[in-house]
Each structure stands twice: as structure tokens, then as C-alpha cells.
Amino acid sequence: MSFNKIGFFTPVDYGSYKEQSNFQKVGQFAGNCLSFGGKKATVISLISSSGMSSRYKVKLDNGCKEGFLKSALKVFLLVTIIFPIIMLAIKLSHRAFNSFYECDPQLRHQSSFAMPLECEDPQEDPQEDPLEVEDDYVLKLVKMRLSNEKRTKKEYEAFNTDALRRSLGQGFEVDMKIKAELSSIVNGIFSRAVVDPKVNGELVKTGDRDKIVAKVEKFGQVYSGDTTVMTIKVAKGIIFKMNFGDSGVIKSRYKKMLLAEDVCRKKGLNLLKIPRAKMFSINVKLSDGARAKEVSVIAEQFLQVAPTEKAMEEDFYKQGAKLDGAIAQLAKFICETGYSDVEFRNNPVIRENNGPAKIALLDIEEMTEERVGLFGVSWPRRSGLVACAVSREQIDAVKKVARGYRLAINEEACTHRLGQLQQVSRLRKVA
After folding, report:
1. Parent domain of 181
2. Nearest partner of 225 among 54, 45, 376, judged by Cα
3. Do 205 and 129 belong to one domain?
4. For the chain, give me the number of helices (H) and strands (E)?
5. Can you state the angle between helices 82-97 and 68-78, rounded to 10 degrees?
6. 187 and 141, same structural domain?
7. Is the overall model pTM greater than 0.85, yes or no?
8. How would you classify residue 224: left for phi > 0, otherwise alpha for psi between -120 and 50, otherwise beta?
9. Which of 120, 222, 373, 406 could connect to 230 by a Cys-Cys bridge, CB 3.0–4.6 Å?
10. CA angle, corner 421, sides to 419 and 426, nearest 5?
11. Arithmetic mean of pLDDT, 41-53
12. CB of 299 within 8 A of CB of 238?
């Protein structure tokens, strides 16, 4: 699976993509003002969202030839100097927080051992594929992976998302009382954010789109970011994740959890732990007088992991060779799904585990490229699984799995990690 990032001056059209902000609309306008024809990128779907940054999959086409009057008006505005500077500044801001990738058509069928990202129009042949009703490219990844394994059409139809939902939520319940309390609390946050900026002495505010920055004693914690994560007192052991600007982000995250559940079951990855989870919706008024908006919510089991990223990293060193099996299985999971945001904080060791050492799959929504998940990349920064390995044997295990999927080995990343481990070993001996 490989993506090509489109050029800066290639104009982007969000087209029929429903969840676009005013900032993105202005960015689209600025891009069109600085374009005089040529290829144009149309947004197909969201790949991932982290903080204020979003990554989109796009389709390139030749666009259409502009009329003489439109082109003449652009030229007239550009010679004013001020107008193009303003448009360029807007475009720079837009691209700083939004990046766009085209799936490389030349690499689409490069390897039958690594699952490719489906690059074609997601609207194609809707009546032929039972997975199409889910309307998300993630389930198409499953279809493509099954295709690579030479599965039959009957086996396509045997892929039952309802069964996966039951499996992912097995033994995990969120009753109506908890849902009602969550809805009341969230609506209360937005209401107080408008009429009363302080609750229990803490500032509560809503930003553009969906940011909430708050810590209110009544309901627990709310963390800032495009995806809001919160806990409430009446739901012990449950974490709630929601996105008030784009519910598609949450639906995509949940479907990737289903994909992960499917892969772990079919490949026997029993040393990886996906939190039990269920998805539902609540109605939220984002401001006084506004119409209630349906917001998708993932209720997720709270796993016993270290409380900080530093402690999570320390757990890897403490477990040492006990994690060899889990590291090898995580490498296989990455090669099967393209999971790419591999970090200590996203994949911590599960504590209070009496059996073999296991690794949690907490935030797996970013699935862009296998080699990034295995070896990392400098921009956008991703550590990769090799950077989480705590021994030469674990690094060699990652390399062995990569070779089995015919992926090129990043020897530089492996050598760099070995150097880090030697430094850590020396420091620990001194201490």
C-alpha cells in the first residue's frame, strides 16, 4: 500500500464530501484562485485525523478548461499583488493542517502478500459487494485482503459485520442510564460554555469545530483535540470517544476496530488486545438555539495500562523477552492492516495480566502504510514498531515478518534503534 502526496499547487475540491469546515471551504477557494487548469484533486474519504491535522485520500483528474472571462479575472486579481499574497497565505494555512494523498496506481497490485489500499472510486459496483453497504473504505480493505488470499465469493458474503460487532462488544454493556447521563453532561458542557464560562472554577470553552478544553469535577475528564475523549463518574471502567465536528471520524475509527477484530481472530493474534467497544449516538445542541445534532460515540473498555507514556515505555523494558511473541504478532497485524501510528502510548503493555505478556491496540485509526508502522517515518513523525523493540531479537523478529510480506527493510531505522538500546543499557548499568 503506497500513497503519493499531491503537489502544493494542485487545487483540491471537497466535492460531495459532507463533513467540511468553513476553513476548508476557504482553503478550497484560495486553491482555485491560484490555479489555471491542469490536474485537480477530489476528496474521496478521510484517512486519519489527529489533533488539528487531517489526512485525506483523493482522486486526481484532468479538471476542466476554464472560460476566458474567468481566467482574465484571475489574472487581473493576481497583478494586484495583495490578493495573491492573501490567497497564498490562506492556502499555506490550509495545507499546514490538511494533507492529501493519491494511492499510487503503479503499486496497486505490486504484492499479493501486503494488503493494498483500494484506490478506485468507492461508488463503483455497489450492487455486487455486500460490504459496500458500510460505505467506508476500511471494509474494502477487508475485501481486498480476502481477495489476495484467493477467497471465494461465498467467503466474501461470509464476512459478517454484525458478528464482528457482537464479538467486539462481547461482555461489554452500556445501559440507557449511562447514555442518558452522557448526553446530559455533554449538552451541559456546551450550554455552560456559552452562558457561563466557568464551572467549578475551571474554564470551559468551545473552539472552532469541536474542541472542548475542560476539567470539570462533576463528570470526570475531557481531553482536547478533534476527537474528544472523556470519562464520567457513573460509568466506571468506560472511556467515551466522540467528534462533534465530523461523526465520520468516529465511524471510521469504529470500523477499523472491527477490521482489527477480524484480523486478530482470523490470524490467531492472541497476544494483542483490542478494548471491548460499542458504538451508539446521542443528540447534542452545540449552542443555544441550535438544532440538536446526532453525534456518534464509541464507548470503550478501559484497559489496565500505565498512566503515562514514560511509564508505558518503561513497561516494555521491564517485560523484555516476555514481549517477543506479542511484538512478532503486532508486526504481522501491521502488515495485514497497514496500521501506521505505532507508539508506546497507542500500544502499551497490559498490566495485571496473569498469562503471557500482551500488547493493547488502543488507537489504531491510522492505517496508511505497513513500512511506516514497522520502521517509522520522520514526517509526519511516526516511531514505528522497531522503535518500541527492546532487544536485538525483537528487531530481528520484526524484520523476519516484513520479509515474509515482501516488504523492504529499513536497515537505518533498525541500526538507529540498536544504538539507542546500547545507550539505554549503559545508562541503566550506571544507575
Report:
1. 176-301
2. 54
3. no
4. 13, 16
5. 100
6. no
7. no
8. beta
9. 222
10. 100
11. 69
12. yes
Asked if residue 391 belongs to a domain, the reply is yes
Q: Cα(216)–Cα(192) distance, rounded to whole angstroms?
A: 11
Distances (CA, A) of 141 to 150, 214, 368: 14, 37, 11
Mean pLDDT of 137-147: 48
Cell numbers placing 149: 488470499
CB contact at 8 A, 256 and 275: no
Closest Cα to residue 226, out of 13, 19, 18, 3?
Answer: 19
pLDDT 10s digits, 365-387: 898 889 999 999 987 789 999 99
> Other CB atoms closer than 10 Å to residue 405's CB: what's the count?
19
Do 60 and 123 lie in one domain? The reply is no
Which of 279, 239, 258, 227 lies closest to 367, judged by CA? 258
Residue 325: give its domain's CATH number: 1.10.510
Return the closest-CA partner of residue 61 out of 42, 36, 33, 35. Answer: 42
